[in-house]
Structures are given as structure tokens and as C-alpha cells.
């Protein structure tokens, strides 16, 4: 197990999440009349997207066992989210659905890790960057 790949994927996903949500909140605050508290579904989308990207990054950096490294990124995300809710919303922690959130975080991390390792396999077989080749035409 490559701990460096796991933490790199986790911190990259955290950075993607914070930048995405920060830009969204700033854009909504300055450019729209919509209340920032109504952005729950979009923030959830950024959460899942960043978690997938973190698993993808962990899979690429580990170069093997992408599902395992992605699962650990998901577990770290679950722990971070649980700690956040425990610190800032102590009454709502049990009603939040910690088990459902854990399963979803781990599954999305696993999917990202599998895609990251498979991307490396495809890249190695083709000898070129697949994404560049797909978007070239």
C-alpha cells in the first residue's frame, strides 16, 4: 500500500472541493440573488466529483491496487466529514446517516481508483495520452 498516493489523492480532492465550493459561493454571493444556503445539491456534486478525482489520483500514483487506494481516500473523506459534523453540528450527527455516507464515500473512491489504474493501463497500451487523443479530433 502506497501511503503517499493515498494522502496525495486525499489532499488533491480536498483542494478541488474547497476551490470549487469557494468559487461557487463567491459567484453566488456576488453575481446572484440566490441564497447561499440553497446550494446543497451543487455542493454535494462537488463533493462526489472531488472524491472521484482523489481516488483517480491515488490510483494513478499507486500504479496498482487502485480500488484499495481509492477506498482509503473515501474512508479519509468519511472521517473528515464525520468529524466536521461532530464538531459543528453535534445534534445532527446521528441523523445524518453515517453508514450510508461511509458506503457512498468508499464506493466513489473505489470507482475513482479503478479508473485511475485503468487509465494508466490504457495509456501504456497506446503509448500516448488517451485523453489528448480523444479530444484532439
TrEMBL record:
Keyword Transmembrane helix in record: yes
Keywords recorded for this protein, A-Z: Membrane, Transmembrane, Transmembrane helix
Signal peptide: none
TM stretches of this protein: 9-30, 42-60, 67-88, 100-122
InterPro entries: DUF3792_TM
Record flagged with keyword Membrane: yes
Name of the protein: TIGR04086 family membrane protein
Source organism: Formimonas warabiya
Taxonomic classification: Bacteria, Bacillati, Bacillota, Clostridia, Eubacteriales
Amino acid at each position: 500500500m502506497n501511503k503517499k498516493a493515498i494522502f496525495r489523492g486525499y489532499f488533491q480532492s480536498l483542494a478541488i472541493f474547497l476551490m470549487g465550493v469557494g468559487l461557487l459561493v463567491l459567484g453566488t454571493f456576488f453575481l446572484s440573488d440566490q441564497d447561499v444556503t440553497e446550494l446543497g445539491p451543487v455542493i454535494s456534486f462537488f463533493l462526489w466529483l472531488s472524491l472521484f478525482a482523489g481516488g483517480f489520483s491515488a490510483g494513478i500514483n499507486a500504479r496498482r491496487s487502485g480500488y484499495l487506494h481509492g477506498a482509503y481516500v473515501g474512508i479519509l473523506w468519511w472521517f473528515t466529514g464525520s468529524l466536521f459534523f461532530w464538531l459543528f453540528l453535534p445534534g445532527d450527527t446521528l441523523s445524518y446517516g453515517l453508514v450510508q455516507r461511509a458506503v457512498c464515500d468508499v464506493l466513489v473512491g473505489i470507482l475513482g481508483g479503478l479508473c485511475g489504474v485503468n487509465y494508466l493501463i490504457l495509456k501504456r497500451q497506446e503509448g500516448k495520452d488517451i485523453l489528448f487523443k480523444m479530444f484532439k479530433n
